[in-house]
What we know:
- The protein contains 18 helices and 32 strands.
Amino acid sequence: MKIVPDTSVIIDGRVTDRIEEGLYEEAHIIIPEAVLLELEGQANRGQETGLSGIEEIQKLREYHEEGKIKLSFAGERPTVEEMEASSSGEIDSMIRSMALEEDATLLTSDIVQSEVGRAKGLDVDYLEPESREEKKGKSIRDYFDENVMSVHLRKGDKPKAKVGTPGNVSIRIIEERVLDEKELNEIAHDIIESAKRSSEGFIEVDKGGATVVQLEDIRIVIARPPFSDGFEITAVKPVAKVELDDYRLSDELKERLAERQRGVLLSGSPGAGKSTLAQAIAVYLKDLDYTVKTMEDPRDLQVGDEITQYTSLAGKMEDTGDILLLVRPDYTIYDEVRKTPDFKVFADMRLAGVGMIGVTHASRAIDALQRLIGRVELGMVPQVVDTVIYVEDGQINKVYDVSYTVKVPAGMMEEDLARPVIEVKDFETGIVEFEVYSYGEQVVVMPVEETEGSLEKPVWNMAEREIERELSRHVRGRVEVEVDSSDRITVYVPESEIASLLGKNGRNISRIEEGLGMSIDVQPLGGGKIRERTESEMMDVDIFIEKEKIVIDVGVEYAKKSVDIYSDDEYLSTLTVGEDGTIKVRKGTRVGRRLLEDTNRGKRVSIVI
Length: 609
């Protein structure tokens, strides 16, 4: 019996299986040079499939030396052009030609190869993918039980596992012995074989020393040098199937998820339970008779057979999105939305009318929205994402409602500063926690610290009295204090006392700020009025906006002088010039905010010495 195996059966180990079963006893196994070259190229690129294939040929060599079979290599070594054309079937054609020349049986687990071979008149032995296979040694499944979340195997280290549930995880040493490379190779080979042979397994990624395999409900990452500094295998398995009712969602949030026209981001840190929640939402929506699909690369979500899982088409999620728009799902779960192309595909499908639920990494709920900003036009953000759900330790920690309005942003006073603002509200209370808007050429994500009727107001009144008492020690005359926020105050003192309160180079006021733990803006009593001045007294200055402060360049010749700062004809403040000839104003102070606003509006800023 002559057998010509193709690359598919060499990789999944089915040739040696048949020899061990006695089906190919004393057979002549002919390996085409094209198969050997393809496996060699994969192995040189660090692909696990190439390494597994070479190990299979080494086993065949052992059987040859034991006299169980005859092994030989034949055929021409493919050219570079032929290898580049392998995706169009050139290598498969060379393998079929050899089987024809040798009058041999073509052995394959590739359905296309088998059908073309039969069309050519070849004797074909087609091996269908196996739904379950007999375990032949140490398997990755042997390390799992109902409490193990993930298994971590590394050369030169003891096998470890993460045990528990999200929010309650501990590391456990599974075995006391240290793993060597040979055993890891055997486990990796078994994983690749199982994935190739099983109808419930597939290889998602295999390049450059990194291989990602989905084997039933286990996701496995195999890493080798040069991709990693050591040989390791990491396998992750969901420990429990969670239903949406387990999260104790409010009826309002459930109703929002059930509305078809929604864009939702599920966010959280790695291992927080985002994917588990996504699975529960997918099942919930499916039970409401919605058509639900998933987009995953690699495919990781554990959902029922009623929900089709799509991966990247030819390596591009954009192409997958195009196909899904033809399929017309009601909802699509996108796991994970991380890179710019992912956000663009998510936005495109959402704006096309598909309900989208994206899973993304973020350390805070607002960070998930910030990842979208800059990748999508600001005005389109609420249309793309109207709900942000933050998961921590397996539980929903925060839910935001994202909406759009036109208003004066919090902290600004002038009516002509009204602009489009994205309001990020707590879903349960309706309180605005963040505002997102354009300021100049920048997009600002500003926390909103004050709301009408805030309970802090009575506390601030007491704080004002205590701060007035403290500042009276440094100032002669009347002192008035106004608390602007929890960390910023404005102090009004007689104009003649300003220099004394500030101190040399602002050292005195800095010491007081440090003691109070608050930023202080010093103003003269009755400040803000228009002062009489002549054009000859006015001096234009250069303003530089830095990360945390505004720098007004007055000139070293005016060092240590007190100056009045004006915006157009309106007096803003009296400040002291530093030794380097500049005045530094913090952005968070009242004067700092006014300077930013007026500069943005093109007002003239000048000083009078």
